[in-house]
Write a structure and sequence with these properties.
Layout lengths: L10 E2 L4 E7 L4 H7 L3 H4 L11 H4 L2 E4 L2 H10 L1 H4 L2 E7 L6 E4 L5 E5 L2 H6 L1 E6 L3
Length: 126
């Protein structure tokens, strides 16, 4: 199996940080589902996840809400029709790693905690 081509450095969230994730709606159940890793949800791994199992156990989030909205517009059935703003806070055991493309983060945290840190959910505009 080829290497990722970059190191994975996992950090504990020690300062507030805002990231965004697509979801299927504003209901708690829809947000909770979106904040589960592919591993936890029983979904198959993304091809990159096959190179590093730790990525299969993470939730992908992005720094830019417009980028998430753009992805969601292209694949609403898979990614969702809304964008959740997640205000990560220290003291919850949440870890992050800068992985993949610029502005992409892998996030590890208990889904219930991540849901509690969602400050807004907005519909994706066409």
């Amino acid at each position: 199996m080829p290497s990722l081509g970059f190191p994975i450095t996992v950090e504990l969230v020690e300062a507030p940080r805002t990231l965004f994730r697509a979801c299927h709606g504003p209901a708690v159940a829809e947000i909770t589902a979106a904040l589960r890793s592919n591993y936890e949800a029983g979904r198959p791994p993304h091809p990159t996840d096959l190179k590093a199992t730790i990525l299969h156990m993470a939730v992908s989030m992005f720094e830019d809400d417009d980028r998430v909205a753009s992805f969601a517009r292209r694949r609403p059935g898979r990614l969702g029709t809304h964008v959740a703003r997640v205000d990560l806070q220290p003291g919850h055991g949440i870890c992050v790693a800068d992985t993949g493309s610029p502005g992409h983060w892998s996030v590890w945290g208990r889904p219930a905690v991540l849901v509690d840190l969602v400050s807004s959910v907005v519909p994706v505009e066409d």
